[in-house]
Amino acid sequence: MNEITIAEIEKATCGTLIAGCRDHRINNVCTDSRKAREGDLFIPIVGEVHDAHKFIPQVIEKGCGALLTAEESAASWEGCDVVLVEDTTKAIQALASYYLEKLKLKKIAVTGSVGKTSTRDMVYYVLSEKYRTGKTAGNFNNDIGVPLTIFSFDDSMEAAVLEVGMDHAGEIHRLVDIIRPDIGIITNVGISHIENLGSREGILQAKLEIADYFDAGNTLVINQSNDMLGSAALPDTYTVLRVGLEEEAQFYVHDIEDYGEAGICYDLTADGKDYKIKLGIPGAHNAVNSALALAAAVKVGVTIEEGIAGLAKIQLTDNRLTIREIRGIKIIDDTYNAAPDSMKSAINTLVNTRGTRKIAILGGMNELGPDSPIYHQEVGRYAGEKKIDLLITVGEKARDIAKGGMETLEREKVMHFDTKEQLYEQLDNMFAEGDIIIVKASRSMEMEQVVERIMEK
Fold first, then answer.
1. Predicted TM-score (pTM) of this structure
2. Which whole number is the average pLDDT over 332-340?
3. Do 322 and 151 form a contact (C-beta atoms < 8 A)?
4. Rounded Cα distance, 345 and 176, in Å
């Protein structure tokens, strides 16, 4: 982070300096008292359960030199610059917006029901072929994570790719108000969060908030092959760039070859030229994701050739189709999150990976609304249709995956466990050399623990 003055912080947040000196400077922003360092600006966030103002004494002891606070009593801390604001969450967002604008970066924002983190990673590698690029770390894609990501940037950077997530309508709007991206990418519109948004139409409108501040100088890049995006009536007030499996797409993806854990290969037709693209990461769905990244990068001055060179270097964020090996067993760790479409894609990767037995260990998927049992059963049936050798399900919601699996698989090829602990008791001698195992579920299931247990056995 570049240094900024207390005076700038006061102005950006519409706050009031109630202690300290406007000429003092900070070069790091912290919201986690455990990570506070000498000279930081500490911003205590007030959440539904915890109010971080109670940690102010701890951060002062660690040497934090400045506070952005909603409590006037903080003025009593001697030797500390204190800016009083009405709401610390709104203040950190306003400060991030001010700081990002100062950097004058080329900015790309990415959202989607599934695939947004992988696509974000791809955009980063593509942009990095030409520009010094910053990106969202981990899953810092919410009201606090996006500002903290922005504060990690400095004036050595020329471009940035930021992931924006949401659970409810209005959340992406709030995030892009901070970012004001030049380019927006929507990977797809699925059914994640449908219980909050009511319908896929509601999800579409929430995703389209990424373009709320767009004008003639902006571009929205969409997955044309997604049914909701392909049929959406989009305004003509900004440029729309369509990427997909249809010939009419401006970035046309075709002839995809899926080599399982060894990666994929596909042809791309764009601007009247044909390109052969190889990706060393698994998942046929990543063909369109990578083409979305290329299309967006072209709009900020990266050539397709440069972008392809960047894709050759890609490494995805952990727990997204990460290959782990032990005792001759391959484990495909895709435990970061799950939705019906991504579950099916993971199963495709499993069956296209060379091995003796193909085994899926699947947990439940969250926020799918009243039709959740139907979606889970659909995944189970799909696993059976792909003729996997063993389907193992874990948790209450995943019982419906097992139910669907029994419709298309022999009963002895389906095992259900109510808890991970019950599965652990059966792990001895369950797997053998040559097995390929994929592990996937929604984030709250913490199925990476299953991967760890298998690795330990």
1. 0.86
2. 89
3. no
4. 29
